[in-house]
Amino acid sequence: MIKVLEKEIEDILCFHSDILANILNIEYESMNIIARQRTVKTGKLDILIAYKDYLILIELKITYFKNEYLKQIKNYLTDLEQLKQINKIPNIPIKPIILVTNYNDSDRKRCERENVELIKYNVEDILSQFYFRFAEYSQFITMRPVDCGVWNIHLLNKPLTLLSKGFGLDEIAKELKIKRPTVNHYFTLSRHLNLTTIYG
Length: 200
What we know:
Elements: H1 6-15, H2 17-24, E1 31-40, E2 43-51, E3 54-60, H3 67-85, E4 94-100, H4 105-113, E5 117-120, H5 123-137, H6 157-164, H7 169-176, H8 180-192
């Protein structure tokens, strides 16, 4: 039996947000985590995502579904609707989703009646993906530092995706609205991690 904290799973899903996108079955390129553990009137919501023309409110649990989770996310939804009224968050629709390790059919129907989506995920699968990636990145720990600015590995995802689609470095900088030297830093890191190679 794997013992893990909810915060640890949340850390992984926010740092490797493509894993979260897969669980939610949404496009990674179109999502942006805009709040995490944000204090609202009735507590602290777990994750808030801007996705296309709406927001996704995530309540993450590492247990089976419980009725109290539905009440909790409904309270957070009310809090966010109030924040809309005072222009604290965008005035766009909010889709509430509860992530749990398991649920039964009656749980699903109960959530559907409240317009809340219930999604099951596997803790072991998330941990496996994380440790697999960590093993790939671990070689970076022993590398001698080079002058590449501040490196955040998760920021490589979008530049690498654009590169795979045939974008040049200048085009990537324009698409991501970042400076060309920053793009150079990203790909210097990607080469050190053996994710990209220079030819010619």
